[in-house]
Amino acid sequence: MVHLLRVRGVAPERIHVFSADGEDPAADLTTRDSPPADFWLLEGTSLGDRLRPQARIINTQWAGVTLHPARQAALREWFEAARKRIVPGDRLLIFVTDHGTGDRDDPESSAISLWGEKLTVRELKALLARLPAGVQVVMVMSQCYSGAFANVISESGPREPHRAAEGLRLLSRGPR
């Protein structure tokens, strides 16, 4: 996504990535090498189990990208600074590829998993409400229970538009 944004002309200083523990050099990302193309021949065998590439934990690093910690305090700080530099007519892209949790009884409590914390639908609404009116918000979310985040477009359910979510439109209204 960062590469695509840069190719489309978005300046690097306008791209902000929140990932795990940010720039902390401690290991924070589980990774594993891909098995060879013909590894399927060994799948399910004791030899395959012994030869399968093992998971390891490494430090997240993206060349040319400053990583901010995926923590509530860092997000609040970013939104506080953003409200001073983002103006009506600007577009904010929120792109989430993470884990998520849900709450069937209270969808507003569904959450994005952060680094040892979570960010609920309610909390994201509050952050977005701090932006100037007229800022377009585009959200692309792939975490589990991401559908609950469609509720950021309303104050009290899917029928009443939320000021901070101008530009967001719910295309399909299914059961909550």
Radius of gyration: 19 Å
**Helix/strand-derived class?**
alpha/beta
Q: Residue ranges: pLDDT <50 for 5 or more in a row?
A: 157-176
| Tally of helical runs | 4
- Strands of the widest sheet, in order across it, are 6-7-8
CA-CA gap between termini:
30 Å
Q: Please identify, by name, the CATH architecture of the largest domain.
A: 3-Layer(aba) Sandwich
Provide the β-strand percentage band.
15-25%
Number of strands: 9
Assign the CATH topology of the largest domain: Rossmann fold
Describe the structure.
The structure is a single chain. The protein contains four helices and nine strands, in the order αββαββαββββαβ. Strand 7 (111-113) and strand 8 form a beta hairpin. The strands form four sheets. A three-stranded antiparallel beta sheet has the order 6-7-8. Strands 1-4 form a two-stranded parallel ribbon. Strands 2-3 form a two-stranded antiparallel ribbon. It is α/β, with parallel strands linked by helices and 176 residues long. The chain folds into two domains: 20-68, no CATH class; 70-165, 3-Layer(aba) Sandwich (Rossmann fold). It has helices spanning 2-7, 46-51, 72-85, 121-129, and strands at 17-18, 29-31, 56-58, 67-68, 91-96, 100-101, 111-113, 118-120, 136-141. Helix content is 20%, strand content 17%. The chain is globular and about 60 Å long. The model is unreliable at 157-176 (pLDDT under 50). The two termini are 30 Å apart.
